[in-house]
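Quick check before the chapter quiz. The format below is the same one you will see on the exam, so make sure you can read both the input and the output lines.
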Amino acid sequence: MPYESVSGSFERASRTGHAYAAVKAAADRAQFYVPAENVADLSWLARKVRKHGSLPRTGPSLLAALAIDGSRMVVPVREGLPSVRYGYAQASAAFLNLEILESQRAERFVDPVALAQAANTALVSLDLPTAGAYTRQGVSIQESWRESIDRIFRSKRVEVNRLNQSLLDLLMLLHGVPGMPAAVLLVNCPEQTCGMTDVATPPAGADCPGCGSRVYPTDVLRVHEEVVEDGANEEALGRLMQVVELLVLVGLATLLWEQARDTLLAQTLFIMDGPLAVYGPPAKLRARALEYFQAMSGATPGDGPYICGIEKSGALVDYARSLVLWGGLDPGDLLIVDAEVIAAANHASNPIAYGSETYWGRKFVYCALDGRVVIPTVPPPTGSPYDDHGGQPDVAAYPTLPGILDVIDRTGSSMYRDGLIPVALAHGRAAFPIGVGTDVLRLVAREVLNLGPGHVNHDS
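Here is the expected output.
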């Protein structure tokens, strides 16, 4: 390239800079069907739309929002050994006082001190070797992950106000009922040649009665089943992060249920960044989450607890934005996402059973009063949101929905497309800074693994 760099040499062209343009050109020539580009006929949607104000309100406006978000990163940590990877993940919770936030709308200039006082955040983080490095000599990468997860869940604690519980405590709680954690978890033996199922495993762990292998209570998550010898295992770290996010929600909601179920719990919306779903091997937690919060709902005055997930990407998000663009939804409109809409947006082969194995909340499409397109997922107080027979698509099964939509209207954010202020706050706390974050994590991992210059780690 005829451009000089800072050092005085000529600039070299990127070896991969042309890749995006080449693939896009190939896609432009190809023929394929995109549901979000085929929404011209919208007459069939009219009977599925609920207008603003048509949903009955059974309580006053909520006064607070608590959002939970997470992020993860896997980095190479040894020069010359790119297979050695270390992972770091964190989950953040951000509490926002909506009364203070709304008081600033009437001011000519926003008071940053008032906004800072309106928000409080907390963070739980975890780290482990993900590939090419092991907890100790002589173990497989799957066994290394099992030992690391067991250690993390025992040592990492969610500490905020009166809540001070380990991740393992919260995992046992999720498998019990509010206020009464499970005494044991039924875990399949992780030894592939054993085949023993439902091993009663207390928090301290147990020996498999079939083969004698050590079984950890965290084996119930089955995250290690996605771990491979050759690969960064970032997806497995993502599965672990989504579990931690769910456990943070369990801990914070239970804290309010125990301490202030008649007051603060009934006035707070809990928001998960992403849909209310559990993917991959830990997906059985979906049923546990639904049962747990339904039990909490049955023991809470009014309609609480108010819980929703906010989906920011995916086929339904693209489809919803196209509906608004083509005039299918007006500000304040709520679209019921039944099997017919699922079939159109996702091209699902079996839309009736969509989400039955992963989602513990039902999806809706909402065009906020300011035009933002939001996809909330909301759990019902009874029954399943999705099942093999279509689940419960109608708004009547979700009494918390009007209060949730009201908070969505009151907390619009321009920090990202179709944003919400509570989610933006949680994301800002949990996100890693680009570039600097990678360098810091690499230095931390080298210290933990003794992988710095001159170090020889005989235990990894």
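If your answer matched, good. The two ends are 45 Å apart (CA to CA).
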